[in-house]
Write a structure and sequence with these properties.
Blueprint lengths: L1 H11 L16 E5 L6 H17 L3 E5 L6 H8 L7 E6 L1 H4 L1 H4 L7 H4 E9 L2 E5 L8 H10 L5 E4 L5 H13 L4 E4 L3 H10 L4 E5 H9 L4 E5 L28 E7 L4 H16 L1 H10 L2 E2 L4 H21 L6
Parallel strand pairs: 1-2, 1-3, 6-7, 6-8
Antiparallel strand pairs: 3-10, 4-10, 4-11, 5-8, 5-9
Helix pairs in contact: 2-11, 8-13
Length: 322
């Protein structure tokens, strides 16, 4: 009887079962990336994967589940058991913008997921195919004004940062451009290289190597200041579009709502250890990521702040929910 009472008290206090930080993890951890391979979230987590597995002492498995602007993968994680064995690594748009862009969501990621950590921040880079003869942002705007509706921009899906950046450009310049969503940043980059679309506000990691190889031309970055990974590329403001800034774009980790705090903290600390590894940090920096590794509280504040900001932009731009 005493043993049973003691076990009940321990469970009530959060020290029994998989919720214990001391015991977690005791089996492989699955990280769902809600986009196809090759996008910003995918390119961030893969260089970290081996170190995360080492820190956690269990295999970390990456599961790409693209579709519906990230909603399919996000819903899968939100509906998983809140035990820390299924996590989401995603770009910010899935959590902060989709609730304003979709009339019906299986789950609202901002409500159904608990923040774990912003892992890294990154700007978007406006890129075009060299085949199109567009040498500047001004060239793009001029073409859009001369031939309304003929300029198109790709995205990794509705609500992603590259979608919203394109909508913001339309709004600020009064131009008519066509949005073409793909199932992730990787396919969107491939489509832009092939000339299927005019341009793409690619996340910098998904485009920088293509720019260096000459397969894409970089016209501007969306951050307040120039990127250290592409110092020769102007900001959108420098390129002539006043008021254009998408500076709070990140890739971060979330867990199903109700995941015990000790487990959330264990995952957050593992992320910090992984990105502090010299090799991991070097690879992420070279790809254009700025390592952040925030606390869960700081990530929660960013989600709230960005949700309000993008809701206003989406309404101002007249974007109709899907």
């Amino acid at each position: 009887m005493k043993v049973a009472i003691r076990m009940a008290l321990l469970a009530a206090a959060g020290f029994a079962g998989p919720s214990s930080a001391a015991e977690y993890p005791v089996k492989p951890v699955r990280i769902v990336v809600p986009f196809a391979p090759g996008g910003a979230a995918d390119l961030l987590i893969r260089p970290m994967n081996e170190k995360l597995s080492e820190v956690l002492g269990q295999p970390v498995l990456i599961d790409n589940r693209g579709g519906a602007g990230g909603n399919i993968g996000a819903a899968m994680v939100a509906q998983a058991s809140p035990d820390g064995y299924t996590l989401l690594v995603t770009t910010a748009g899935v959590v902060v913008a989709n609730r304003s862009l979709y009339r019906k969501l299986t789950v609202d990621p901002a409500v159904a997921l608990d923040p774990v950590s912003i892992i890294a921040s990154l700007p978007n880079m406006l890129v075009v195919s060299p085949k199109l003869g567009l040498a500047s942002v001004g060239d793009v705007i001029a073409r859009a004004k001369a031939k309304p509706g003929t300029v198109s921009f790709a995205s990794g899906g509705i609500g992603t940062s590259n979608h919203l950046a394109g909508e913001l450009l339309k709004h600020l310049t009064g131009t008519d451009m066509t949005h073409v969503p793909y199932k992730g940043g990787g396919p969107a980059v491939v489509a832009t290289i092939a000339g299927e679309v005019t341009m793409l506000f690619a996340t910098l990691p998904s485009a920088v190597q293509q720019v260096k190889a000459g397969r894409l031309t970089a016209l501007a970055v969306t951050s307040r200041s120039r990127s250290t990974a592409a110092p020769g590329v102007p900001t959108m403001t420098e390129a002539g579009v006043q008021g254009f800034e998408v500076s709070e774009n990140w890739v971060g980790a979330l867990a199903p709502r109700g995941t015990p705090a000790p487990v959330v903290n264990r995952v957050q600390k593992a992320i910090v250890q992984a990105v502090e590894d010299a090799d991991v940090r070097s690879r992420l920096a070279a790809a254009g990521y700025e390592v952040v590794a925030s606390t869960p509280a700081a990530m929660g504040q960013s989600i709230k702040r960005q949700s309000q900001s993008w809701e206003q932009i989406i309404k101002a731009a007249g974007i109709e929910p899907q």
